[in-house]
Amino acid sequence: MIYLNNAATSYPKPKEVLEVQEVALSLPPESQHRSNSVAGGKDTAGLCREKLSRVLGITRPGRIFFTSGATESLNRIFRGLPKDCRTIIATQTEHNSVLRPVYNIPGFEVAVAPCDGTGRVDPSSLEEAFSKVRADKGVVVVNHCSNVTGAVQDVPALAEVAHRHGFMLLLDASQSAGCLPVETEAWGVDLLAFTGHKALFGPRGTGGWYASEGVEISPLFYGGTGSDSDKYIYGPSDTPPQETGTQNLPGIAGLLAGAEYVLSRGIAAIEEYDASLRKELKERLDAIPPVRTYGPAGGGPVLSFNIKGIAASDAGYILQNEFGITVRTGLHCSPLIHKALGSAPGGTLRAGISCQNTHEDIMALAGAVRQISEGL
Fold first, then answer.
1. DSSP letters spanning 76-125
2. How far is CA 349 from CA 69, 74, 149, 282, 353, in A?
3. Spatial distance between the Cα atoms of 13 and 254, rounded to a whole number of angstroms
4. Secondary structure of residue 345 in the 3-state scheme
5. How far, in Å, CA of 309 to CA of 290, rounded?
6. pLDDT-derived band of residue 181, with 50, 70 and 90 as boundaries?
7. CA dist., res. 296 & res. 118, Å (int)
8. What is the mean pLDDT of the segment spanning 194-202?
9. H/E run at residue 344
10. How far is 251 from 264, CA to CA, in rounded Å?
11. What are the helix and strand counts (H, E) for the chain?
C-alpha cells in the first residue's frame, strides 16, 4: 500500500513511537504530579512539553496543556474565553473543528475573512472582516496551513492586524506542527491549538493547546489533579488547573517520541523534503490535461486535485482498490474553502505528504492518475 493520507493521520509511525508506547503500557503506571516521576525528576508530560515547546517556538512549556487533540483544544478555548471576547473572526480556510463550535456555541458573533483561489488570506481581507463586527475585543482564528490546498498563511501580518484592532490571535497548527516552522511567540500568537497524530507522528487521541502569559481561559472541567488535593473551592484570584483527571500518559509518551523524532530530523529538513515531493507531484499532475490541481505553487505538504469527468469519491475508490494508493476525498471537513476553489459540492482528492513518503510514491500516484484519466 502507498499511503498518502498523512494530512488526516500520519502512517507509518516511527519505530521509536511504537516502542515507547509499548514500554509505557508494560511498566507500572506513572501518575502525574506524584513521587514516582521519571528521567531525572521530570515526568513524561513535562518532558513532552519541553520538546513541544521547541517544535512550536514557545519559551514557557508550562503554558502547553494536553488534550485529546485539536478539536478538544479548540472547544476548550472557545468555551473558556472571557465574557467580553464573544466576537470571532475566522478565515474561509477553517476546519469544522473551528466552524462548528463558533457557530453552535450560543453567544458568539461570527465573521469570516475570505481567502483567494489558492487558499491564502490577505491581511486586507482580515481588515475587511473587521468592518463587519461591532466589538473591540475578540479572537481571530487562523488555520496556519490549509488542509485542502497547503496554503501557508502569513501569521505575523495577520497577528498585527488582529492586535491593532484589540483582538487576540488563535492559530490552528494542526496541519503545520512538526512539518513547518511554527514560531508562536515571535509571531505574536496568543493562543494555539495542535494535534499529535499528524506531522508530530504521535498516536491518535493526543494534542493540546497553548496560551501566552496573561491570557487566561476558564477550564472546561474540574476534578482531580494529583496535587493541591485539599483545595476544592477556587476563589476569584485563583487559577484553576487546566488538566484534570487521569492523563493519557502512554499517549503522551508516544507524542514525546514523535516530537523527538521530528527534532532529530530537523523541521527545516522535513519542510524542504516535503516541499520537493509536493512540487514533483504538482508538476506531474499539471502535465495531465484532465487534471486540475488547487493551491499555490509552494506550500505545506498537502495537494488537492480533481480529474475532469470523474467524481473525486469515485477516483479515490479506484486509486485505493485498483492501485493500492490511499488518498482522501471529499470536503476534508473544511466546507467554506471549496467555494473559493470552485470545488464544491464534491470536493477534491487530496494527497497528504509526509517525510516518510518517497519520490517513488509520488511517481506511482501520478502514474495511476494518468491511467485513470486516459480511461475516461
1. HHHHHS-TT--EEEEETT--HHHHHHHHHSTT-EEEEE---TTS---HHH
2. 24, 26, 11, 13, 13
3. 10
4. coil
5. 8
6. very high
7. 5
8. 98
9. none
10. 20
11. 11, 13
28-35 contacts at long range (C-beta below 8 A, 24 or more positions apart): 29/249, 30/249, 31/226, 32/225, 32/226, 32/243, 32/247, 32/249, 33/225, 33/226, 33/227, 34/226
Bridge-partner residues for 138, per DSSP?
Answer: 167
pLDDT band at residue 33, thresholds of 50, 70 and 90?
Answer: low
The count of C-alpha atoms lying within 13 angstroms of the C-alpha of 319, restricted to the half-sphere facing its C-beta, is 30
How many angstroms from the chain centroid is the CA of residue 41?
31
pLDDT digits (tens, 9 = 90+) for 119-172: 999 999 999 999 999 899 999 999 999 999 999 999 999 999 999 999 999 999
Determine contact, residues 111/133, Cβ cutoff 8 Å. Answer: yes
Q: What is the pLDDT of residues 277-293, one digit of tens each?
A: 999 999 999 999 999 99
64 within 8 A of 53, measured Cβ to Cβ: yes
Handedness of CA 362, 368, 372, 373 (dihedral sign): positive
The pLDDT, as a whole number, for residue 40 is: 45
Question: Is 60 exceeded by the pLDDT of residue 271?
Answer: yes
Residue type, 3: Y
List 87's β-bridge partners, or say none. Answer: 109
Place of cell 476534508: 332
pLDDT at 39 over 60: no
Q: What angle do CA 71, 224, 256 make, to 5 degrees?
A: 50
DSSP letter at 196 equals S
